[in-house]
């Protein structure tokens, strides 16, 4: 867990004092909205449909219990008692008053949290594999490097007025849980001849023009990585398109120039900036690494687990669904679902946040993670404690056993909150989850990722959902387009549109027909939805969705 | 030929609370769409919008929103405006907390 240095603390205090003064000047009329807007956005404050929204960064998705408790405190002191965890490892408060926001930021600073660069055309919160440091399959914990990137990118003078926002994700594992191919830059830690470095992916992104990132370099050693990234962002900062907002992201720059031309420019620029990095970054990285030393794992952490697993059926089902393998056999990674059937995906009440903080402190080495899939993770749990954790979760509406299943839906806030949205997302997610819970089909269906966005900006990652749903405004009516076959992992794929969209009251029945088609087509229970789709293609799903088209053709 | 002018109200967000507000005929800002001034003349609409935009220390992002006249005052035309006058659909937050705002 990174602990702020005196420099960090002073920097944040100064920045918060600055913003407090800006808010005061806006309220007393000395600043117009046009003048104030860029200032508030630099501090994560949006004005949405019904209220302001404060977006707080959770750097690389890592929190300790004190930080989680502070998030709960904000929720009940200045909001309506809950917070919304997002697909970029942030938390959003939907109801703050402008005059309260400086106090909220000061409260966050007490535990080393902030809202800096959670908006605007800057390098945003660096996201990471939510199993980082705990997964058995990783080369190294990516978070020290993510923290180095945060320090490098925060207030970086060259990168404050870029063509558009810039998002970086990092993973230490070949099994991509951080969607690195859908980021402006995706980093995968790799080792070559005993030297740690990263494979650099560039030009991925969803939104209006979805693209899968391409490999800029198969290996850049850590010594050179910061210079290489600075060169990459710098090349885009110069040649990225500022004439058209929709063509400004680096994915378009890479697409228009071609990856080879971009690579040549980056290499040229890299040679120029490399000399400016004289090893201070590596010294800093060494210091940061010490903050991320693994906890002192208890020995024989599994004692008593087997008995509870054998005797408690509900516990067993939860373990089978929500637990992932830890790098130590006697420990486990627990994913706490924020997707109770019918609840808003990613929302947690202040009370639930406190329960999770207590569990982390009491049983799990004081660590929590937020996943881009809008769930909370206890990354290091001795198996002996799983049953006690489960019982506490059960009492607080947090024990839903649905990770990776049809009701574990990613959904953006949509038109219930967002000023950019063209349709609602949340009620669609709620209805799908409720419907399949009624049908008791969830576990029968197995692994299936549904992702819902309420506009083409794709915060809900719909393009990379096995089933993607995109809410649009068609002539003043909500309409939902479906894509199939998307994939957010190392085999990232953009889903394919099924055809015309569906009305608000027809979208859940449409999803049901897709699922029925899968159950009908699959070879056996072992063949997952995405495997069946890859084998049989779009045709049977289309036939089920648009029977009238088939009748017309006949 | 220019399109015929359709009825409008002036709406914005409150500077401090951020919530949705509507300009009334007697120059107040109301939380309730039913109290909004129904504007049926284009020139009058532009003048009223100028009035609203000038109140920068009270309101943010004033604009003209389409409405249709109803028995209890203006009613939203687009579903986005219906959400703005009511609040989100997943919790009874926003205007639903204080006064009944039936969804159209």
Give structural attributes.
heterodimer, A: 554 residues, alpha+beta, Alpha-Beta Plaits, Sulfite Reductase Hemoprotein, domain 1, Sulfite Reductase Hemoprotein, domain 2, 4 domains, five-stranded antiparallel sheet, 21 strands, 18% strand, globular, B: 104 residues, 5 strands
Poorly predicted runs of chain A are none
> What is the tally of beta strands of chain B?
5
Q: What general outline of chain A do the C-alpha atoms trace? A: globular
Tally the beta strands of chain A.
Answer: 21
CATH class of the largest domain in chain A: Alpha Beta
| Main beta sheet of chain B | 5 strands, antiparallel
Radius of gyration of chain B: 13 Å
Largest sheet of chain A: 6 strands, mixed
Helix content range of the residues of chain A, please?
Answer: 25-40%
Domain Nitrite/sulphite reductase 4Fe-4S (chain A): 119-270, 408-545
Organism (chain A): Ruegeria marina
GO molecular function (chain A): 4 iron, 4 sulfur cluster binding; heme binding; metal ion binding; oxidoreductase activity
InterPro entries (chain A): NIR_SIR_4Fe-4S (IPR051329), NiRdtase/SiRdtase_haem-b_fer (IPR005117), Nit/Sulf_reduc_fer-like_dom_sf (IPR036136), NO2/SO3_Rdtase_4Fe4S_dom (IPR006067), NO2/SO3_Rdtase_4Fe4S_sf (IPR045854)
Q: Can you put this structure into words, describing what you see?
A:
The complex is a heterodimer of chains A (554) and B (104). Helix content of chain A is 39%, strand content 18%. With 554 residues, chain A is an alpha+beta fold. Chain A has four domains: 6-109, Alpha-Beta Plaits, CATH 3.30.70; 134-291, 2-Layer Sandwich (Sulfite Reductase Hemoprotein, domain 1), CATH 3.30.413.10; 308-394, Sulfite Reductase Hemoprotein, domain 2; 410-553, 2-Layer Sandwich (Sulfite Reductase Hemoprotein, domain 1). Chain A is globular. The termini of chain A are far apart. Chain B is α+β, with helices and mostly antiparallel strands and 104 residues long. Chain B contains three helices and five strands; from the N terminus they run βββαββαα. Chain B has a domain at 1-60. Chain B has helices at residues 42-54, 79-86, 95-98; strands spanning 8-14, 20-23, 29-30, 59-70, 73-76. The model of chain B has no long low-confidence stretch (mean pLDDT 92). In chain B, strand 4 (59-70) and strand 5 (73-76) form a beta hairpin. The chains are: A alpha+beta (554), B alpha+beta (104). The A-B interface holds A 26-29, 32-33, 47-52, 80, 94-99, 344, 415-417, 424, 426-427, 430, 473, 476-478 and B 13, 15-20, 56-57, 60-61, 77-80, 83-84, 87-91, 93-95.
